[in-house]
Amino acid sequence: MEARLNILGNDLAMKVVGHLVAVDKVLAGSTLPRETQELVKIRASQINGCAACVDMHTKDAAHAGESQVRLNLVATWREATVFTEAERAALELVEQGTRIADAAGGVSDEAWANAAEHYDEDQLAALVAVIALINAFNRINVITQQPAGDYQPGQWG
């Protein structure tokens, strides 16, 4: 597959992506566990069909020490026993936050309350921002058909 737009070769696209990367750096410094952030990014990317982001975040997570079993089971987290209750709450929130159009009420009060049981206010703010950010990246990559498969862990910082 060939990309519709060379993001790295377009000044405007790179400015936009640069700002998104800056947001990601802020989130990386938050108290929301990095493992949770990666699981959220992987799950949203799976839902959105963003191969480039699935490639990147599974490789980065594995490089950071995440187990292959957990990476293999992200898409089926409800049936898997390898995720903590906090991670399960984050995965439910990312699914509902990514599939907003699928439910007239958006994110349920139950999903929010469950997440709030496991994360403090700053972590919830980071979780919401991670969900929004990865959805933005997914849309850029899917719309422009960015190819996947050759990402190297840490390639983008």
From TrEMBL:
Check the record and name the Pfam families matching this protein. CMD
At the top level, the lineage of the source is: Bacteria
Query: GO molecular-function annotation terms?
Result: peroxiredoxin activity
**InterPro entries given in the database record:** AhpD-like (IPR029032), AhpD_core (IPR004675), CMD-like (IPR003779)
Domain Carboxymuconolactone decarboxylase-like per the UniProt entry, residue ranges: 26-95
Name the NCBIfam families for this protein: ahpD_dom
Q: What is this protein called?
A: Alkyl hydroperoxide reductase AhpD
Lineage runs: Bacteria, Bacillati, Actinomycetota, Actinomycetes, Streptosporangiales
